[in-house]
Design a protein that fits this description.
27% strand; GNAT family N-acetyltransferase; transferase; 5-stranded mixed β-sheet
Amino acid sequence: MNVLKVYQIKEDAADAIKQQMAELFMQQISVTTNDESLRKISQAIELTIQSNGTSRIIIAEENGIVLGLALVNIGVDLRTGGHYLWLNELYVHNEYRNKGIGRKLLLFIIHMAESENIKSIELETGVNNSVTKHMYNSLGFYEIVSKRYGFSF
């Protein structure tokens, strides 16, 4: 019987699972597979695992196959005087979409945040991503209007 497991990746994660995570992140960010991109993503996975909980990767896995994953960061929110969780990435493998996997990942994250007394969860999604927006709204998320800026070295 196939059983979907949703859990947070720990330091003892198998290399095969880490490799699948890297490949899925590559697919998510639409990067053409090359050694340098894979190296950077693998490095980010290791940094996340070793971050003492400030960054985390949650995966949905079935029979040793990573079907979906989420990358979250935890910070401090001046508005609430507590911690907030930023959902950087939530991605389900193309072949496994519309089967409730993204919802299960998000529910895991919500329950994890609540149990750790995190005050809010924030994320962003594409303007035209109506399927994902519907899932977020169905779980109680609401739209916050903002502009996001970035700077890279």
